[in-house]
Specification:
By secondary structure, this protein is an alpha/beta fold. It is built from 7 helices and 7 strands; from the N terminus they run αβαβαβαβαβαβαβ. It has helices at residues 16-27, 36-44, 61-68, 91-101, 117-126, 144-148, 165-172; strands at 31-33, 52-54, 78-82, 107-111, 133-136, 153-156, 176-179. α3 (61-68) packs across α7 (165-172). The chain is globular, with a radius of gyration of 19 Å.
């Protein structure tokens, strides 16, 4: 099996769903996890350590590091959010924080798609930031190293997140990251 949730992102700690998950996981011969936080969650369900395999880095670190050399200096700081445009990603709060803290030449790019896109465009206009915030469609994974190289800071303000892999990518690209405690 594969399990990537952590104790902090686990919504069902008791009751029938927690019981079913614990039963299912205990029946697996081996469970692959992406890191120690997910391993600790499985151990809390009673899965023995010798049955848990911590996997490998899912990010092509070398590709992102190589692209970081393409970063050019511009006026202003370039922020980017990458992900779904849905409520639990907390992007409306990001727009408000950007409006409050930004310097005149700073920009924010919101890359993704989702049900809140139209609303966030309106919020950006209402905050007087239509020229400073760009909304872009998702790009193929292969384009991410070069894309991230054109930004300074990734922001992931999620209210709930198992782990935003884009944070690993941004760090590999030499970017600053701002990540909520919930991610």
């Amino acid at each position: 099996g594969f399990y990537e949730s952590t104790l902090s992102t686990n919504r069902h700690r008791s009751g029938p769903l927690a019981w079913a998950r614990k039963l299912f996981m205990s029946q697996l011969h081996t469970v692959v996890v992406p890191g120690p936080a997910a391993r600790r969650a499985l151990e809390s369900f009673g899965v023995r350590r010798e049955r848990i395999f911590e996997g490998f880095n899912a990010v092509d670190v070398e590709a992102f590091a190589a692209a970081s050399g393409l970063r050019s200096r511009t006026n202003g700081h370039r922020y980017i959010y990458v992900g779904q445009i849905i409520a639990r990603k907390n992007i409306e709060h990001l727009l408000a924080a950007f409006a409050e803290a930004r310097a005149p030449d700073d920009t924010l790019t919101v890359l993704g798609s989702g049900e809140l896109l139209a609303k966030l465009r309106v919020v950006a206009r209402e905050l007087g930031l239509a020229q400073a915030i760009e909304f872009r469609d998702p790009v193929p994974n292969a384009a991410m190293p070069v894309l991230l190289a054109s930004f300074d800071t990734l922001v992931l303000p999620s209210l709930q997140e198992v782990w935003g892999l884009v944070v690993n990518e941004a760090l590999a690209a030499g970017m600053h990251v701002v990540v909520s405690r919930e991610a």
